Amino acid sequence: MARTAEVVRETKETQIRVELDLDGSGRSEISTGIGFFDHMLESFARHGGIDLKVDTKGDLHIDMHHTVEDTGIVLGQAVLKALDGFKGIRRFGHAYIPMDETLTRCAIDLSNRPYLIWKVAFARPKVGDMDTELFKEFHHAFAMNAGACVHLETLYGDNTHHIAESGFKALARALRTAVELDPKTHGHAPSTKGVL
């Protein structure tokens, strides 16, 4: 059974198309108009083992907020759609990602009870041209729309690039484990409720 999805969202602020395959090999085609964000989404696809296409056209003449947040919304919706009721998955995943002086931890529960715990601080307001405050907006939008409980924490680190990138990689690796098919679930949602 293919675990793929395509989601299109068009508003006055953004036009976004996301295609993904949860059982891919990490290939990506990313275009958001924001160089560093493209790099983060490419890293997310590679380390998540997800084939991912993202085509975002946003109102960058205003700022990057709508582009980043709305891309998180559509990516989350695509993951949720591809999971098809969370049937047969491991559900939980976690990862620790070191990048030089930085260490970031992510734990995820694909529970259909979305939540974000964000314990990440940046020393600088920008990395490249991107506002660092937008990273929380992206992760929040993703978690809310993927039905994911995400706890993301940078345990220590100084370099803004490393902190941001280790967060995306940690989320990707935790998600990669959580979406794996678990034969012990016998194709059911992994919950005593029988449904998530």
From TrEMBL:
Coarse class of the primary localization is cytoplasm
Asked if the record carries the keyword Cell membrane, the reply is no
Which keywords does the record carry?
Answer: Amino-acid biosynthesis, Cytoplasm, Histidine biosynthesis, Lyase
User: Coiled-coil stretches, from where to where?
Assistant: none
Assigned EC number: 4.2.1.19
User: Which one of the record's GO molecular function terms can you name?
Assistant: imidazoleglycerol-phosphate dehydratase activity
At the top level, the lineage of the source is Bacteria
Biochemical pathway = Amino-acid biosynthesis; L-histidine biosynthesis; L-histidine from 5-phospho-alpha-D-ribose 1-diphosphate: step 6/9
The protein's matches in InterPro entries, at most eight in alphabetical order, are given as: IGPD_sf, ImidazoleglycerolP_deHydtase, ImidazoleglycerP_deHydtase_CS, Ribosomal_Su5_D2-typ_SF
Q: Where in the cell is it found?
A: Cytoplasm
What SUPFAM superfamilies does the record point to?
A: Ribosomal protein S5 domain 2-like
Gene3D superfamilies in the record:
Imidazole glycerol phosphate dehydratase, domain 1
The reaction(s) catalysed by this protein are: D-erythro-1-(imidazol-4-yl)glycerol 3-phosphate = 3-(imidazol-4-yl)-2-oxopropyl phosphate + H2O
Q: Which family does it belong to?
A: Belongs to the imidazoleglycerol-phosphate dehydratase family.
Which PANTHER family does this UniProt record tie to the protein? IMIDAZOLEGLYCEROL-PHOSPHATE DEHYDRATASE, IMIDAZOLEGLYCEROL-PHOSPHATE DEHYDRATASE HIS7
Report the protein name in the record.
Imidazoleglycerol-phosphate dehydratase
Q: Name its species.
A: Phenylobacterium terrae
The top of its lineage is: Bacteria, Pseudomonadati, Pseudomonadota, Alphaproteobacteria, Caulobacterales
Which gene name does the record give?
Answer: hisB
